[in-house]
Amino acid sequence: MLLPNLRTQVFEANLDLVRKGLVLSTFGNVSGFARDEGLIVIKPSGVPYGEMKPEDLVVTDVHAKVVEGSLRPSSDLPTHAALYRAFQSFGGVAHTHSEYATAWAQARKPIPCFGTTHADFFHGTIPITEPMSDDDIAGEYEANTGAAIIGALDGMDPAAFPAVLVANHGPFAWGPDARGAVENAWMLEAVARSAHLTLGINPLAKAISVPLLDRHFFRKHGKNAYYGQAEIKE
After folding, report:
1. How confident is the model at residue 179 (pLDDT cuts 50, 70, 90)?
2. Is the pTM of this model over 0.90?
3. Which residue among 49, 56, 120, 136 is the active-site one?
4. I need a surface site. Which of 79, 94, 151, 192 has the fewest CB within 10 A?
């Protein structure tokens, strides 16, 4: 069986979607990428999470061709593959239909950064893709979804914005590995809910100041980060 360690990690990451309340039914999927081997491990399409086993996961190449597995891979595989090809830092991708993030996607609205909880994980407004054209939808839809995400990140650091809303669809998040991608999807849902509640309390709420945004983001990320414990070197 190819990539047993990555397979186990991706299996647990998919179950994390359920544990964190980020999916409905069989919706949603997580993949992991073994960049040295050029292989993706991803959830099989339509298999209930409670029935899925590690050996059910599907291994494909970076062009979405199945290498190992008897089940169909997630229908979103071409989106995942496009992101792995485009961004060298991606080791995991998570797609959910979490309630609040999906609501923002359906409303075609980016999520403003109103406070420090958001700023701890995302360096500003969470972007949304342009609506897809009829031709894009009728053509290679999932691959074109990947292209839309890549377009939404143009000129941005994907490590500073580890999630994007796909217009009328839902969120995609990523990270250095599969479980990191799920963590970012979880944080995205939290800030989407918080932003919704903030606007309900004050429809004229203003975005966080740039100095406060930078202070919170960079104290957790970057070369001068000081949040948490320093790595112990033996």
Report:
1. very high
2. yes
3. 120
4. 151
